[in-house]
Amino acid sequence: MDVIANQLFAGLSMASILLMIALGLAIIYGAMGVINLAHGEFVMLGAYATWALQTYAGIGILPALPFVFISVAAVGWIVEKVVVQNLYHRPLDTILATWGIGIILQQAVRLGVGAESRFVKGPDLLSGNTEIGPLIMSNYRLFVIVFSMAVLAATWMLMTRTEFGMKLRAVIQNRAISECYGIEAKRIYSVTFAYGAGLAGLAGALITPLFSTIPTMGTGLVVDAFLVVIVGGLGSLIGSAAASVLIGEATAIFSIVINDTLGRIAVLAGIILLIRFRPRGLFPTETRR
């Protein structure tokens, strides 16, 4: 039971990372219908930005978070303006273009800082563990869980309680009509894409004390994040939250019962079965473009 409890906690912390990555994907797809295959590279850029700030500027991971968000969001804004904006309503071209952008970003990092693993020191403030009975919880992983919940709440507030969110929902429902009312759809798209990229950068920053930082680190993470978005329902924030916990904990449980490889296969089989009977996910959203 001790092992199971601690493994479930580890699964929950990983689910929190997946949630922040998936939120960016869900927002970008829900608003623009864009399948962004470069999203994993935004995670990687966030990780390398954190490493660079700590290595060259002496800035710890916690104070670096705002800088990471802004810098990766700026990269996302440029990508949307230069490439993605010209490919709306051309889904295949968008997939190929973002895939190519991802390769370019990976190679740029390899040329700039090398392909060897980089490591980021966790914050001293969050070192150590918290013990509750048999459960031993890393303070840093607890912070990651709480931070991801705060990001989810902030994103929900942004989308449902602000003028920007109202305009975004209008563009999602009907771009042509919303533009007739003076809403600049292109500007809304650019800000939305940048925000989603910034969330991926935050996830990359937070994962650096847990995993080594390498140019290809975002590839596996973005696959899991896509699964979260598909299971939760394309464009659904609540669905992404529920699916991230479901997938993260299912992976943790199966890893204990069998092993990591077979556990992964079992989770994928379960996702395929779910999609077979609920092809639009657990919390489908209605959109019109």
TrEMBL record:
PANTHER family: ABC TRANSPORTER PERMEASE PROTEIN (PTHR11795:SF447), BRANCHED-CHAIN AMINO ACID TRANSPORT SYSTEM PERMEASE PROTEIN LIVH (PTHR11795). It comes from Antarcticimicrobium luteum. InterPro entries: ABC_transp_permease (IPR001851), ABC_UrtB_bac (IPR017779), BCAA_transport_permease (IPR052157). One of its GO terms (molecular function) is transmembrane transporter activity. The chain crosses the membrane at residues 12-35, 55-79, 140-159, 193-214, 221-247, 253-275. The gene is urtB. GO terms for cellular component: plasma membrane. It holds the Pfam family BPD_transp_2. This is Urea ABC transporter permease subunit UrtB. GO terms for biological process: amino acid transport. It is a multi-pass membrane protein. Its main location: membrane. Belongs to the binding-protein-dependent transport system permease family. LivHM subfamily.
